[in-house]
Amino acid sequence: MFVSVCAFSIMDLIVKWSEDYPVGQVLFFRGLCGIIPIFFLIPKDRYFDFYKTKRTFLHFKRCFAGLIAIVAIFIALRNLPLATVVSITFAAPIFTTIFSIFLLKEKVGVYRWMAVLVGFIGIIVISEPGYTSLNLYYLYPIIFCLGLSYVAIAIRQLSSTEPVWLIGLFFSISILIMSFFSLFIKGWILPSLKDLFLLSMVGILGGLANLWLTQSYKLSEVSLVTPLKYLALVFAIIFGYLFWDEIPTIKTLMGAALVIISSIIIFRREIYLKGSVTTSRHE
């Protein structure tokens, strides 16, 4: 889990750095290079029919929601302080809880509803919405959370029959396809060798981070590894200060604390009720 959090944090750092390149171009490298780690996981007997699945439509919905999420988070990272974006993304379990009521017919008790309320208060504290100075870019991390929440539910459904590598492979391919449409609109900037390496790392780190995250849940108790994901906020504060002189406000830290408390409550209640919880970032 620690290595996964580090990989995601460095990927976020590179995405924020890449603001001079079109979003579609960064997505191209995320999709293309994201396939590389997955390729080594495909079993030898599936090399020629790796694409076969009986749940095509669910894969499509998972990829569609994932694409919305990844575009939203890329835009947010380029236009908001790093710590602010990471803080809001911790709210994903809140939306997953709400979606699970309608999509999985789950019953949500008083504790989780209270956690949802606390989480929403945290988001409001962080974004400081107002009628005179509303920053619309604060909506993008929330859109990311909405997309990621459906992704979490879709993966929960797909995992019963589909291997992890196939779920990840379809998503990387869908990113690659979408990037071509974006490139026709925004164009392509020829990167230097250094920039080419960094852009490629967006895909490699993103692919590896998801695989490491999944593996950490397989090898260790979920209750032990999940709290480590909140180290991402520490990395975001450090990177934001070192590279962009960003210092998180007291309101951002207070709101982040509320969101983290909310997601921990939801996480603990799901562990207590079911013995498992889906918390993967998957982007």
Can you walk through the features of this model?
With 283 residues, this protein is an all-alpha fold. The chain has one domain. 73% of the residues lie in helices and 0% in strands. The protein is built from 12 helices and no strands. Helix 1 crosses helix 3, helix 3 crosses helix 8 and helix 4 runs parallel beside helix 12. The longest helix is centred in the last third of the chain and has 27 residues.
Beta content: under 5%
Tally of distinct domains = 1
β-strand number: 0
What gyration radius follows from the Cα positions, in whole Å?
18 Å
Structural category is: mainly alpha
Give the SSE order as H and E letters.
HHHHHHHHHHHH
Spans with pLDDT under 50 lasting ≥5 residues? none
Shape: globular
Keywords:
mainly alpha, 283 residues
